[in-house]
């Protein structure tokens, strides 16, 4: 069973909408204090990796050296293109947040702008830039292109992507440290509570639905063979990581929401406790 295209479009719109509260708060404040640059960077790298792999597969699927029976259908379906649009929108929105945080002042980055900028530029050199350059060339049966394509895909699937899978957790710790380190009464700064809530809910909905959005050749696996750990491992490396990345992000946003709300309630209670004796006098 595959997810209907209309539902994928609705989910795409929900994803876009879930970023608006955070973007709006940054725009209103003109200040990124309270947002960890590494929280933004790690989430941006995850989004970049997902976009890179989707773009690579969609563009090269017709190439004889391209991937077979993973991630996208043959021939490409409307759903495959909607999936690419989904990854593109999330990536672009994180780029906007990242650029905004770099452009506007913050009292929590402690001079880390150059470091995070350098890290992301280096990652672009091994992700988006190569696939964009590849997309500009004419597809052919050139063996060199086939070899390079296989090498690039293999490096990402076997080495880079497994590391990227953990960055969503690293992002959680980076932002939680900033949250818990803020001075009592200083609020949450540029971190949007509404944004955390909407992203947590939206991506929690999206995560399991990827099981029906990305193609994997289950039809070539014998009965009950999918239960074998090697098959499940192959599924995770090829398509399952997308659902996991989305689930990790949803969980991280929910945890941050819990920390933020608890912190604000604690600070409100402390303020009320300090005010009560004064009112009694």
From TrEMBL:
Topology in membrane: Multi-pass membrane protein
Keyword Transmembrane helix: yes
Keywords assigned by UniProt, alphabetized: Membrane, Transmembrane, Transmembrane helix
InterPro entries: PQ-loop_rpt
Broad class of the protein's primary localization: membrane
Transmembrane regions: 6-27, 39-62, 82-103, 115-133, 145-174, 186-215, 235-261
Pfam families, alphabetized: PQ-loop (PF04193)
Top-level taxonomic group: Eukaryota
UniProt protein name: Uncharacterized protein
Organism: Chaetomium fimeti
The organism's taxonomic lineage, starting at the top: Eukaryota, Fungi, Dikarya, Ascomycota, Pezizomycotina
């Amino acid at each position: 069973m595959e997810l209907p295209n209309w539902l994928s479009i609705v989910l795409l719109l929900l994803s876009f909408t879930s970023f608006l509260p955070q973007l709006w708060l940054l725009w209103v404040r003109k200040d990124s204090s309270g947002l960890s640059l590494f929280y933004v960077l790690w989430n941006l790298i995850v989004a970049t990796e997902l976009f890179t792999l989707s773009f690579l597969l969609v563009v090269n699927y017709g190439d004889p050296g391209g991937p077979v029976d993973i991630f996208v259908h043959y021939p490409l379906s409307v759903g495959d293109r909607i999936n690419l649009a989904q990854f593109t929108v999330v990536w672009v929105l994180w780029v906007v947040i990242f650029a905004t945080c770099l452009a506007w002042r913050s009292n929590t980055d402690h001079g880390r702008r150059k470091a995070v900028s350098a890290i992301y530029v280096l990652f672009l050199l091994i992700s988006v830039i190569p696939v964009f350059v590849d997309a500009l060339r004419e597809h052919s049966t050139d063996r060199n292109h086939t070899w390079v394509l296989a090498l690039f895909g293999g490096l990402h699937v076997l080495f880079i992507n497994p590391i990227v899978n953990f960055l969503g957790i690293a992002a959680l710790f980076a932002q939680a440290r900033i949250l818990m380190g803020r001075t009592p009464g200083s609020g949450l700064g540029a971190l949007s509570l509404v944004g955390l809530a909407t992203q947590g809910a939206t991506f929690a909905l999206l995560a399991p639905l990827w099981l029906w959005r990305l193609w994997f050749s289950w039809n070539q696996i014998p009965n009950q063979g999918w239960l074998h750990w090697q098959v499940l491992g192959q599924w995770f490396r090829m398509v399952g990581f997308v659902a996991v990345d989305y689930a990790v992000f949803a969980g991280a946003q929910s945890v941050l929401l819990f920390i933020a709300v608890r912190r604000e309630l604690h600070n409100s209670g402390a303020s009320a406790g300090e005010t009560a004796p004064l009112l009694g006098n």
